[in-house]
Design goal:
The chain has 130 residues and is of the alpha/beta class. It is built from six helices and five strands. It has helices at residues 9-18, 32-47, 62-67, 94-105, 112-119, 123-128; strands at residues 4-5, 21-27, 52-57, 75-80, 83-90. It has a five-stranded mixed beta sheet with strand order 1-3-2-4-5, with helices on one face.
Length: 130
């Protein structure tokens, strides 16, 4: 499932209604840490097609970002049955994002994203060496 871009609070709320599990990534285009996390976030979305992944550009979604309590970038929030869980990752913490995703999905599968996060390497470098 592709990552959807969401800018409006009403659209985000509709996604929470329509999907049981949602992972929201809050980014800005000029943020180096956000750029570092994008490949891992994209890989996790590809490997978990049963979960809805959304991308929120904070610069274009101030009301939504504020309503979600975003104070730093990137921030990843996990929603289950319309409710935000206690799971949240703030900053460019690849291994922590992958670990929280595994808990959220209750999956112990080792993926390319996990390997990349543990090695703190770009996914392209890990895939090229596979």
């Amino acid at each position: 499932m592709a990552i959807s871009t969401v800018a409006e609070k009403a659209d985000f709320e509709q996604i929470l209604i329509e999907h049981t599990k949602v992972v929201a990534g809050f980014f800005v285009s000029w943020c180096a840490a956000c750029k570092t996390m994008t490949p891992v976030y994209t890989q996790l979305a590809q490997e978990n097609p049963d979960i809805k992944f959304v991308y929120v550009d904070i610069d274009n979604s101030l009301v939504l970002s504020h309503s979600c309590g975003i104070t730093a970038m990137p921030t990843f929030k996990f929603y289950d049955n319309r409710n935000k869980t206690q799971r949240e990752v703030i900053g460019a913490k690849k291994a922590e994002l992958v670990a929280e995703m595994a808990k959220f999905t209750k999956s112990a599968t080792v993926t390319t994203a996990v390997i990349a996060a543990q090695a703190e390497k770009p996914l392209s470098a890990v895939v090229a060496n596979s």
